[in-house]
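Issue 218. Parser rejects a valid record. Input:
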Amino acid sequence: MPPVVPAKASPAETVPTIDSRFTVPGIRCAGCIGKIERGLALVPGVAAARVNLSAKRVAVSHADTLDADTLIDELRKLGFEAERAADNPLARDDAETKRLIRALAVAGFGMMNIMLFSVSVWSGTDAVTRGMFHWISALIGIPVVLYSGRPFFASAWMALKYRRTNMDVPISIGVILATGMSLYETLTGGEHAYFDGAVMLLFFLLAGRTLDAMMRGRARSGIAALLGRMGRGAQVVGEGGATRYVEADKLRPGMTMLVAAGESLAADGEVVDGRTTIDTSMLTGESDPRPAAAGDLVHAGTINLGNPVRVRVTAAAQDTAIADIARLMDEAGQSRSRYVRVADRAARLYAPAVHTLAFLSFCGWMLAGAGVYKALTIATAVLIITCPCALGLAVPAAQVVAAGALMRRGLLIKDGSALERLAEADEVLLDKTGTLTVGEPRPITLAMLGPRSRAIALGLAQASRHPLSRGLAHALRAEGVEPATVELVREAAGSGMVGRCDGAEVALLRPDVHAGGRADTLAVDLAVDLLVDGTRTRIAFADSLRPDVAETLAALKGQGLPAAIASGDRAEAVAGVARQLGLFATAAMRPGDKLALLERRAAIGHKVLMVGDGLNDGPALAGAHVSLAPGGASDVSQQAADAVFVGERLMPVAIAVKVARATMRVVRQNFTMAVLYNVLAVPLAIMGHVTPLVAALAMSGSSLLVVGNSLRLARAAGADGGKDGK
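Output the parser choked on:
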């Protein structure tokens, strides 16, 4: 059997003096990341700066002498508006996406209408009709450019105001020149107006930016959702035994909380009175509740399943274990943007190269005696034809098509960049409970129960939220059992469900509970006793493996991804699964242990795909090179993961790797086509053979070619597994 290694306790990690986080909506590309991280690193007092491209957030570690307002001002000098992350609700991100969609819709409407008039002009019309169509195009095109061009104009102005440049500067110059020259032609009765080219340019640029924003909109931070799992407050016992309600953020160490049955703990603490069972699944990943008695430590976010207990607070608010996990997740998520370094260098060169090329074209034609108008027309054509529409669509178009194909196979990609990282993965780390297993105890067999006993068991089980009751109810419903009418159903704390059916007492009891009521011990077995007509029948439970685990592991191995288990469960709970699947396993891992393991693997060059479901997997999911979570995972794990798969099958994990590798092949093809387009088109524009309108059409054609190539990914998820994803 492969060894099951209990994890060693990780040493306490030092916390930076001050760690501030800011939301920066203007982060759009790899160039923005490099500019911010390099610029802030030069600010005295800044130790480190990390950009999270997906969340559009910047984390800055700095000396306490440097306040947040100063950092916001430094970001503004770099060309980026910023605000404290705590002041920026997620609704603002959604509002930005909606603004882009509205701008895209307006540009599309204007483009289609202006093109109708342009076709008539191309077909040959007299001067009067041509002039009228140009005026109508101007009346449509100028408002459209002013409205739909705002995202580019605002970004370009912010950069230029601080004597910097970005990719939106040449785009804005090209659009403004094309529109201005078209208006001049209209006013002077000229033959050529390029309103259609300017609006078409905006439409395709907005299409790429909107697709990208929609993909990033699926990668919102899960930190608020995580901290929301803590109890909102607690009943604190005062002098004389009286209780008062205290909100979670006002709890202090030393206070004594009275935690009722079914209540979520609002702070970490030590049980000082009472015995109960605690649902720790969101912290440990284990479905089996754990006993807790005087002297035992319990944590915020866990749920008291049994008797009321008194808990002395040891840590509250930002000092709790769940808050530590939130910080680990945020730090891990920030560091995930390092994969864009190569794109960063390319993006830094784009804007100055285009500006230089257009300026040299203008100067060259002026020296050749072409005149200002013709030289300006050629320079505008160069700016438009070098517009990175195809490059901008190369990645998001492929990502959206691939994401749609995966969605039809039960896997939701939240962040398009995850496909790139998923294609790079070279090994898989899997949690046990809820990942390799279904995550819910299910009856091993129900054959010993007759029809009446099954109906009574369902009538009792459906009235409880206990994991064993839920598993029993799920299994019985799957067999088509109809619940019996059970009256006076009540849940006896620490014992089970009790009620009456046809005048007789019936119950679902823990195996160590006598029919009279009290428990002999607090040891929790994965079994319940069904009491019907005075007869007790033992129902055993197990958290079974997902039905296609072996098949999925074989498919992953065929794609060159060896697998291992990293679990927070006890070693004895992991041993059986490791033996059955033939995998190396590490058990009893805390959240920091899993994250440290991933960092060690990354340090020696491995790119790990993490698959997990519990809250304890949150930091690892956020810190892994790429991560997946099942649909039954905790809300926080689903937020931290790059993708979520639904159903009881594990095969979507192998399919995701296959599709990701196919997507990267298409992306490389898209980039190749975009580069070839520029190599062929730019010289023609410089030589004066391309008008701004033809440049816009050529640019649009290259964009359509990229989109058409990306559509081939629609069938990429058609077959399970696949060697090397081909």
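Fixed in the parser; the record now loads. The chain has 24 helices and 27 strands.
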